[in-house]
Here is the input.
Amino acid sequence: MSKKRLLLVLPSLVLLIAAAGAAQYPGETGPPLTDEQKLLEAMHSIRSEILYGYVKELVSEKFGGRLTGTAEYDACAEWVVSLLKKWGIAPGGDNGTYLQKYPNPYTLVSRGGSCVLHIPVKNGTIDKFYKYEDEFIPGGTSASGEVTAEVVYVGYGITAPELGYDDYAGVDVKGKIVLMDPEDPVRPGDKAGAFPKWRPYSFHQYKLENAVAHGAKGMIYNYGPIGNPNNSYWEGFVYHHVGAAVVADIFAGTGRTYADTVAKIKKELKPQSFATGKILMIKNVTERHPKGVGYNVIGVIPGTDPKLKDEIILIGGHLDHIGRMWELMPGADDNATAVAVGLGVAEAMARSAIKPKRTVVFNFFGSEEQGVAGSKYYVEHPIYPLDKTLVFINMEGPGGGDKISASGAKTYSGFWTFIEKANTKYIHRIVGGGEASYPARPRQDSAWFFWAGVPSLTFSAYGHSVPYPTYHNTKDKIDLIDSETMEDMAQLFFMAIMDIADEEAVNFRK
Here is the structure.
């Protein structure tokens, strides 16, 4: 810890020491603790080593990467429930339970997938095998099977007559493998304001289904390569996520470069699709579970004030990750750290001698990685009224650095005042953030609440560089997280929430 950081935390330590000095022991008398001293005791019960232990448990092999719908996810949800029960936190789910149940089809990906380019030579072919994870990852909702066919580049895979745009015009993809880019040629924030018209075509589900509708038998999606279970399932349709190495090989010798081709699409908004002449084999081994079930895990600390207890402060983050594809994807910072921080706040609040006047709900969502389905279901079937929900404090990756940021900090200035107050007085981290904005497809649980009119912020940590990308792959491991940042974020939320809970009148919707 730097000298500056040590000096900044001294005021909180002095208050804690004062609280300890004022504590009464058997046979002793002394002044009772003040409410602030009691809150400080509870705040300092949140410790980094405990939160680290929660992350370690969440990323363990027995929970299998926490893909919603699987038995491993269910076991993980029950582990969270066991902690909430242990701390005396009331059930906040369906029918007096801690769980909110919803339909959740899922796909298991097993070992055995491959991606092979057949390169013609004078006396036959040479097979180039691409490396798992570095160069390809099986599609998270791919059918099981094998496809060998010519690759046709189809840009963004969009057919939009009203926009005068069709990536499939002039090319025949029947029985072939399409190479496709994610997103749209027009991005959020473009100066012409055209993105809303293109938005429906940015969804992974649309792109896959449009490829199937045009007769394609397989797809290589230029997306990472990362693991991603957020897509449609179509029987017999096989696909991979691929990276730059595969894309470069497909374009090699065609007289075009990938970079120039994409740049031309974006500039002219005209398709540049073409048959590449390259023959590729893609294979996946998967198992579809169309009747899968997902769960949100919900606990509640009821408010103590008769007039304020109907108002809700919601805090949480998604419990799930992407499972195995086919190796274990641990999801330490995405999003085990958020669950750990939420549990830290929950335990401190449950054990605190001071209880919140408003009701605090802890929601650990399922299926965020599967189309943000758990939070969508909650918003469509709210257990606590959305119009009474003052704010949703969401977390995404709160262990990935030494600084704290929140999308929505500038949008909800009334809420942010409480965060800054708690940080200045107790925590002393670098905190900040920008506007809340969700113009594209939902990528975070907070999006559904934001669109439903609930003030919603997503908190993350940043500031650490890692030697390799860790998003949705095997490298998002516990040794990369900063547990002290997690501790500070949990303590920050605890103090800010307790402050908000006691405020006489709150309206962050302004």
About this structure: Residues 1-27 have pLDDT under 50 and may be disordered.
